[in-house]
RNA sequence: GGAGGGGUCGCAUAGUGGUUUAGUGCGGCGGUCUUGAAAACCGCUAUGUCCGAAAGGGCAUCGCGAGUUCGAAUCUCGCCCCCUCCGCCA
């Protein structure tokens, strides 16, 4: 959500953001509703002021006839106020719905483009593994090593279901621990949050009202979060946080649930795209300052890169084009890991900042040094998502005999050098 | 799941239809006094929104939402949360 005053005064900036993000948002419709809202609000306020004034008179008037007359008059004022209020209520609903859909403004460094095919590579790290044999895909490798059972996963859970088994289970725990350790060394605060969350948290982070079809909903009208960003941002919902505690740096482990409603045909096999996965997520709340946001954005990317480098998984970094940004995102980097069996890079990390877009919806504020209330800035980014990370990990470290070398950094957790 | 109690301005509390523009205490801020401090005394003490250049003013907010009324913190209904007891339970 953006400041309505800002939108009023910077209509063209919003229109440009709409164009760049390939959004279908109608700024004029919002401004029209806004004008009506202000007009009706002031009419209702005036009628109410009239009632308030009369009300205190009524309580003091001794003469009964005079009082009854005034009460009669006020009945009429009340009726016309209620009519106006009904009008206002409808305008407000339109206004709120539109305001929730205004896209945030992409940074000037974000390239033009319609979708992920136009994201721009800005860095490549590591040597793409060279094999003197034909590398296998993770499905074959992991099935042969009894690390996964898709058949029974689907039997039990349905489409995109999976069981991890044996070393893949240990490997998962190792990855999570390793990631947590890196972040904790960096001064992050760890959280294990509820992912069964109320709608306001999704509204606040921008996953609602648009995006409901990608969420699992319970019979109590709660939703399962697709990322720990949702409960973590909800943590300070409707709070004024002390300035001297900023920035908050959270490292959050959680299961993640996604319906993948828009991607039925994509990645139907294997561990790339599943309904239920686990993520170690970085979440930052910092002071409302663009440079501060930019610095943290770079830092979150650096942390994720450090994780990938510690496992020696080759990857590249892309800057997402405007059309591939979410509604609230100002700028986003993806890390894509090299997947030998596909001969291409696949997304494993996503790191973005929002300025005060989320904080405004969540009403998370702090008092600046001059005593003014400001909305915090927020950022979040993957540190590692599993089991997806297993795909490049298993594939890049496979050997001719079908065994898999365990990355050095994970060996202490696994207690072995090789999976065979 | 059942029964009962409760949610008021940072905290604590008063307040069962109209002098409540929500009182009081504590805390916080400013001031008087003082060599300094304490005490005492005086004043201030939220958020949102609209009008206004500003000064200032209107309106809303007593968990949330709806209703009754000329008028609601106060009455009615629904929901949320907390507490106590019972039941179930990893």
CATH class of the largest domain: Alpha Beta
Q: Kindly state the number of beta strands.
A: 18
At CATH level 3, the topology of the largest domain is BirA Bifunctional Protein, domain 2
Q: What overall form do the CA principal axes indicate?
A: elongated
Describe the secondary structure blueprint for this structure.
Blueprint: H1 4-9, H2 11-20, H3 27-58, H4 64-99, E1 120-125, H5 138-144, E2 148-149, H6 150-157, E3 163-164, H7 167-185, E4 189-191, E5 196-197, H8 199-205, E6 216-217, E7 223-224, H9 229-234, E8 240-241, E9 248-257, E10 276-286, H10 290-311, E11 315-319, E12 331-339, E13 344-353, H11 357-362, E14 365-367, E15 373-375, E16 377-386, H12 390-396, E17 404-405, H13 411-414, E18 418-419
Parallel strand pairs: 4-9, 8-14
Antiparallel strand pairs: 1-11, 2-3, 5-7, 6-7, 9-10, 10-16, 11-12, 12-13, 13-16, 14-15, 17-18
Helix pairs in contact: 3-4, 5-12
The structure holds one RNA strand of 90 nucleotides.
Structure explained in plain terms:
There is one protein chain. This protein is 40% helix and 20% strand. With 420 residues, the protein is an alpha+beta fold. It folds into 2 domains: 4-99, Helix Hairpins (Orthogonal Bundle), CATH 1.10.287; 116-419, BirA Bifunctional Protein, domain 2 (2-Layer Sandwich), CATH 3.30.930. Strand 12 and strand 13 (344-353) form a beta hairpin. The radius of gyration is 27 Å and the shape is elongated. It binds one RNA strand of 90 nucleotides through helix 3 and helix 4.
